[in-house]
Amino acid sequence: MGVVGILWYYSNDLPDYKFLKNYKPPISSKLYSSNGQLLSEFSSEKRIFVPFNSIPELVVNSFLSAEDKNFFKHPGVDAKGVLRATINNISNLLSSRRLEGASTITQQVAKNFLLSNEVSLDRKLKEAILAFRIERALSKERILELYLNQIYLGEGSYGIASASLQYFDKPISELNYSEAAMLAALPKAPSRYNPYKNLELAKFRRNLVLKNLYDNNYLSQDEYKKLLNQNIILKKRKSVYLENSNYYVEDIRKNIVEKYGFDKVYKQGFTINTPLNLNLQEQATKSLRQGLVEFDKKKGWRGPILNKKNITGWKNNLKKYKLEESIGWKLSIVKKINRFSAEIETIDGINGIIEFASINWTKKNFEEIFEIGDIVYAEKIDENKFYLRQMPKVNGAVVVMDPYTGRVLALSGGFSFKNSEFNRATQALRQPGSAFKPFVYALALENGYTPATLILDAPIVFDQGEDLKLWKPENYGKKFYGPSTLRTGVEKSRNLMTVRIAQNLGIDKVAKFAKELKIYQNPEKLLSLSLGSSETTLLQLVSAYCSFVNGGKLINPKFIDRIQDSEGNTIFNSETRECEGCDQISYLSDNIPKIKSNFKQIISKETAYQMTSILEGTVKRGTAKGLKDLNLDLGGKTGTTNKNTDTWFIGFSSNYVIGIYVGYDEPSSLGRYETGARTAMPIFKDFVKKAVKKENARPFKIPGGIKMLVVNTNTGERASYSDESIIIEAFKEKDLVNNKIQYGNIDYISKENIYKFY
């Protein structure tokens, strides 16, 4: 009666356990690259849920041997285990040793899901009562499934699947008995037996589990002896790609949390597929960093990070200065200074020297730039030789986009995410300067202009209103060139020609067009807008340039291809195009599906090609001719703002649109001669040289409605092949029909012979 009374007393006010039938533990959402490689996880607890029928038998055997060998026999509480623990604990009490527990897996499920970790008799009694009830409500397989997916196994990992990846970088289906036994050894004390922290203790505990497996007849004697001597081989998941993708990943994380809420993203196990191309991302990040470093070196040495007088404890309190591993720079201390070198020790204990050749960019000697105890960045270039580095004060961004879909293939928002999480590709609002001009010229081509139209390049003055100074725009170099073709205005980036076109079209029309292209939200209706005086982001500008390559379509940047929930249901799909008649096409037939684009036609396909051709000319003859030696079909436009504060280069091939921005976070001049061609374009060039292959830079497709004529580059008039300054120009057929171009009866150049001509 006393026992019944105690059980009745503790049975009252127990938590409801019935929800465990349909319970789904919090699962981390996973972010994948375009080729299916895991980029990041969003979770409050690292966990991958695995159903019981997908858990290998050897994993089940290992955990049962370690935690509850009679699991499939007892009703929730193991009476033999309780008796054994009671007897042993009498001895433990007398010798002041730690008391043994006798909790079954069912009791641990009750504790983990329904009770606290409080060590008390009350809790143990409630745990036992709940264990009996859970056993009646759930199958043994379901209880074990809950346990193996909920249990904490150290290193922030919950559940066997997550722990398997954390310790061995492999799925549970590939585990062997040695590895499974090590995981099964962790629940008792995950921190104490963590192999990353104490390998010998972890091996000792693993061997105890192997002994239990042998005693329970899961292993033969030969297998047991063989496994007993095996070392624990750990393999952490590589995260270098993740480091290079941090800006990209963080932008997605913020957006989906805002859209779906924190709990759904961090607990409901979304699968998020992105268009991120890891190879392009790695090279884009490298090219950006290299370009920023090369620019920064021109500004000279600014001094060490700090100086530590106490050389013996110099490695303490330096965490905030650590950079991404992919950068390859090590925090180092200067220990000795010689005339032609300095001896250093890196934070990971490597001794080496910095030679004079690696500091010549500072234009100083070792005594001028170093003191004993200086903490600096050093990059290893040989066995014991290092290059002196410093964190660039300048920063920038790069975006690589598919112009036909808007899929963002690569993005980096700065030199180091660890140093600054501010994303200069999506958050930094800056003036695009001359990089905006092509849209003014595109609008002109939509409104009766041709690439050969002559526009006056001469001084012009505007009255800005009462009490305001006169506005007198100037060309770079402060020269004037008289009547010049529209093409020349873009290729040579002529400010005065651009302003005259904007004045003729009307600034309202220019502002409206810029807003439709989503470059600006509410641009000021001033003529200076035509020279890029309003602020935008690199991502918005690159998106707008895509219209030139894709035939005049307006696209939106896409960071996510698809999101699926934990059941595999698609809850978001960025692909909105239609496949006409795809349901009627057999895979055995020769019919090719037709994808119908539903993107808005923002400019005509003829204008889009004309601008593409003109921007190709910028590379061949204009401000971007430094790219000519790449021998690829490329177009692009430089951009430089007043006082050289912000510099840009937006370039493209037939498959990619690539944008580069360089500037200080606190806006100030980059230097008198630091234009987009000198700062941003070299980053573009380095990226294209290493990442863009010939097949991704094919000749641009000429649409129907375009006729190619030979004209004089200076006058825009008809020319013959024997003339010196000629170009094959793209004209709209409708302009020829309407006699907007007075050429009489002439022979057009066939599309096949255009490239032969060049």
Describe the protein.
The protein is an alpha+beta fold and 758 residues long. The chain folds into four domains: 45-228, Penicillin binding protein transpeptidase fold; 300-392, OB fold (Dihydrolipoamide Acetyltransferase, E2P); 397-555 and 601-696, 3-Layer(aba) Sandwich (Beta-lactamase), CATH 3.40.710; 706-757, no CATH class. Strands 2-1-5-17-18 form a five-stranded mixed sheet. It has a five-stranded mixed barrel with strand order 7-8-9-11-10. A five-stranded antiparallel sheet has the order 13-12-24-23-22, with helices on both faces. Helix 9 (199-215) runs antiparallel to helix 10. The longest helix is centred in the middle third of the chain and has 20 residues, at 278-297. It is elongated. The chain starts with a helix and ends with a helix. 42% of the residues are buried.
List keywords for this structure.
single chain, 758 residues, alpha+beta, Penicillin binding protein transpeptidase fold, OB fold (Dihydrolipoamide Acetyltransferase, E2P), Beta-lactamase, 4 domains, five-stranded mixed beta sheet, five-stranded mixed beta barrel, 25 helices, 26 strands, 16% strand, disordered C terminus
